[in-house]
Amino acid sequence: MKLDGRIAIITGAGSGMGRAMAQEFVANGATVVAVDVRTDPVAETVKLLDDGRSVAQTADVSSRADVERVVTEAVERFGRVDILCNNAGVLDDYTPAHETTDELWNRVIGVNINGPFLFSRAALTPMLEQGKGVIINTASISSFVAGGGGAAYTSSKHAVLGLTKQLAFDYGKRGVRVNAICPGAIHTGMTGHLMTADGRNPHVDAAIAATPAGRWGKPEEIAHMALFLASDEADFIHGAAFTVDGGWLLP
């Protein structure tokens, strides 16, 4: 099993891509610390895992105290942290800059880039002591282009790639691999509001239909990439950004 015996922290694990990652990792031998700001959904994720070892943690990824508590308790309980998936994220509903409030800006930046930084900083301590670790950041196609979100979201996802590259540069020779996954249109609870009441949105449908895949992506397809990057098969991959977007960026 690719991740046999490894301990993984996955944020945003209460649903969508985070839940799919948790299921994929446990199916391949890992134990998961599932993290989400919502208590009931993340507890449901651990119930679905049904492995007898994985645990749920309620935490706000933008809170330093919450982040440090999660990492400290993971080390106390399991003795190590092998994998960190910084997956938690929020959208800004395509809000342009002149309509972006301080509250919206701070929330998006707090979750989407401060969260990965805080969790990475905290997890690096046990990883460097072990001499080995993997950090996987969930970025976006909005890390490369405009139009996939508003001012706050696009800025935050560009920043995630910068953080990924710098962490890879700083810590690769010390045994910690850092990479990013850049999803396109993935059908999750977070993107469900983009659909109309009858499940159709002509604007979204048209954009997705124009991609080579011609469909929404599935959370499991992001989880498959995360599994590969977390495994030893990806040992020579550092600081890379993998688009899993159905070909959205080809044009």
UniProtKB/TrEMBL annotation:
InterPro entries: NAD(P)-bd_dom_sf (IPR036291), Sc_DH/Rdtase_CS (IPR020904), SDR_fam (IPR002347). GO terms for molecular function: oxidoreductase activity, acting on the CH-OH group of donors, NAD or NADP as acceptor. It comes from the Bacteria. Keywords: Oxidoreductase. Pfam families: adh_short_C2 (PF13561). PROSITE patterns: ADH_SHORT. Belongs to the short-chain dehydrogenases/reductases (SDR) family. PANTHER family: 3-OXOACYL-[ACYL-CARRIER-PROTEIN] REDUCTASE FABG (PTHR42760:SF115), SHORT-CHAIN DEHYDROGENASES/REDUCTASES FAMILY MEMBER (PTHR42760). This is Short-chain alcohol dehydrogenase like protein. It comes from Cryptosporangium arvum DSM 44712. The lineage of its organism: Bacteria, Bacillati, Actinomycetota, Actinomycetes, Cryptosporangiales.
